Amino acid sequence: MNSKRLEAFTDGVIAIIITIMVLELKVPRGGSLADLAQCLPLLIAYLLSFVNVGLYWNNHHHLFQLNPRIDGRVLWANLFLLFWLSLVPFVIRWLDESAWSTGATAAYGMVLGAAAIGYFLTERAIIACNGAGSKLARALGMDWKGWGTLAIYGSAIPLSFVSRWLAVALYVLVVALWFVPDRRFARVALP
């Protein structure tokens, strides 16, 4: 089957997730910059989450540009990814309402880490559907970036119980790792 319907569904779900995230933002009670500063922790969580969700959306697009053929495994792996992304607004709210508590910081990493696993499973399902010699399989190679992401989340979650700010720094590191355009896809997509 062709991936266009799955891509459209994923685009819609991600648009809803981003909409819910922005609706969860609280407006400052006053009109001064000091009042806005009180919202800064929530704005930071929103920014980090918006970029994370945007990175998944962007890279998801690349997956299906290389291999548009999908099967049931891809559909289920993609739903797994979307399930975890749909929990991002929930953990943002928990971060805000608990003043970035240890538990909420760990949960934030668990949700992002599980989404990373969902993305990894989606990649593997596409490769299984299209073959080991597919464009996606050639582009990913050993997939150090993907494995590194999983390792960083695997380290950051328990670290959040020691230092939540070091854990947050590792969450930002993952964003920085993926924010750099991934040339692997362009290299294989070009003739």
UniProtKB/TrEMBL annotation:
Membrane topology according to the record: Multi-pass membrane protein
GO molecular function term, any single one: proton channel activity
Coiled coil regions in record: none
InterPro entries membership: TMEM175-like (IPR010617)
Keywords: Ion channel, Ion transport, Membrane, Potassium, Potassium channel, Potassium transport, Transmembrane, Transmembrane helix, Transport
Pfam families associated with the record: TMEM175
TM segment ranges: 6-27, 39-57, 77-95, 107-127, 147-180
A single cellular component GO annotation: membrane
Cellular compartments annotated: Membrane
Reaction(s) this enzyme catalyzes, per UniProt: K(+)(in) = K(+)(out)
Stretch forming the signal peptide: none
Record-linked PANTHER family: ENDOSOMAL/LYSOSOMAL POTASSIUM CHANNEL TMEM175 (PTHR31462), ENDOSOMAL_LYSOSOMAL PROTON CHANNEL TMEM175 (PTHR31462:SF5)
Family label: Belongs to the TMEM175 family.
Protein name per its UniProtKB record: DUF1211 domain-containing protein
